[in-house]
Amino acid sequence: MLAMPVAAQDHGPGDGTQWKLDPFARVELGIVSAESSDREEELIVNGDGGFLRAQAGVEFGNHDTQIRFEADRIFVERFGSATGRDSFDRDRLTVSLDQKLGEDFEVQLRARAYDDLVTIESADTDERQAALRLEYEPVLDHRARVQVTWRDREYDDGQGPDGSSSQGDGWRVDGEYRHRIGRYHYVNFDLRAEEINSDNPLRSYTRESASVSYTRPITRDLRVRPALEVRHTRFEGRITPSGDPREDTQIVPEVELLYWPGDWRIEAEAKYIFSASNDPVRDRQGYRLSLTVGYVF
């Protein structure tokens, strides 16, 4: 990363008020193997594939204020008999402002746009979002965050008025607490509630989720992170054979290894997804394995 200082009037170097321009970039190559099946193993879903991700941006700021512009693109390729959406590209643009409020508080404002995003309710979604995040960190060992996000979505489904794209929007609220035990040694607790409302009943849903993770260093560059997530999703407009709205509950244990020597980012993840649903087709379980190799500039 290259840092270029910008002069700040009436302030000397090293006092935290000097503004700096920091360009950054990252590339990643990853492979995923995933498979799930119903309880009788009559319906098997294959999710094998690979991806290439490129990210570039710039940060401009000082000790108290950070402005960030970022562009991100992912190229996804499905392998062999993979089911679901074919190969696709996903684009993301982000601009954010982080501002310290005294010693303990920090606020972030963020705007973000996605093109061709895969979401819970659709395999081809364009999204625009605005978010406000408040952070409280009285000491290094304790950090709490609350974030509120408004999302506006457009679906490439031709199911809107006169064959146009249908629309959806709604809030997402996140709460996070992190306890720092030591260097790269954390316990995280996360809660989330979200909803999307749409005139197209197939796109509306509500979801609540909770997760806990534990990050522990093994060596200076190697860390392990076991985690557990529980989430419940209700699709009010998707009716099951019994005549009730579809409801899914998922329990997802996982473990992740992170090896970060220098500017390299090598990450391996294994998770198992237990899904219970009142829709027999969605009452299933399966695994997901991934390996990512990245480099930061």
Identify the CATH architecture: Beta Barrel
CATH class: Mainly Beta
Summing up helix and strand content along with how strands pair, one would put the structural category as mainly beta
Count the beta strands: 16
Major beta-sheet overview = 14 strands, antiparallel, barrel
Overall 3D shape: globular
CATH fold type: Porin
In percent, how much strand structure appears in the residues? over 45%
Mean pLDDT: 91
Question: Number of helical runs?
Answer: 0
Task: Give the % helix.
Answer: under 10%
User: In terms of per-residue confidence, which ranges show pLDDT below 50 for 5 or more consecutive residues?
Assistant: 1-12
The CATH superfamily is known as: monomeric porin ompg
Integer count of domains: 1
| Strand arrangement across the biggest beta sheet | 2-4-5-6-7-8-9-10-11-12-13-14-15-16
| C-alpha Rg (nearest Å) | 21 Å
GO cellular component, one term: cell outer membrane
Subcellular location: Cell outer membrane
Keywords: Cell outer membrane, Membrane
What does this structure look like?
With 297 residues, this protein is mainly beta. The chain has a single domain (4-296), classed as Beta Barrel (Porin). It is 0% helix and 71% strand. It has strands spanning 4-6, 19-38, 44-46, 49-61, 65-78, 88-101, 105-117, 125-139, 142-155, 166-182, 185-196, 205-217, 222-239, 245-259, 264-277, 284-296. The chain has a 14-stranded antiparallel barrel with strand order 2-4-5-6-7-8-9-10-11-12-13-14-15-16. β15 (264-277) and β16 form a beta hairpin. The termini are close together.
